[in-house]
Amino acid sequence: MFSSVPTIVCDECEFVVKELKTVVEDKKSQAEARDFLRENVCKSLGQYRGFCDLVVDEYLPQFIQELDAILADPHQVCVDIKACNAGQGFKARKYVGLLGWFQRNSL
């Protein structure tokens, strides 16, 4: 992104990560995410709807738990996506899957 990230970008990133963590931890938001996936994804899969519902029920809680763990350190997340300078004691983590794609394709 930048060779040296402006402090305001880093501060805003950390603020957004903290807000996102609050949403991720909220049980109502988790239920809304589950319901959204079931109604907008699984429902459109016809005969595979039941299987899709099972996958959502089985893996969404694990995904939320992993996302919550990643968001535990807002500064580290912002370093990872290059919105903050690494600084002392911080080194960008390498992600795989969807998070890795976002990390590799940041602007």
From TrEMBL:
Keyword Transmembrane helix set for record: no
Record key words, sorted: Disulfide bond, Glycoprotein
All copies of domain Saposin B-type, residue ranges: 6-88
Signal peptide boundaries: none
Keyword Transcription: no
Name the record gives this protein: Saposin B-type domain-containing protein
Domain of life: Eukaryota
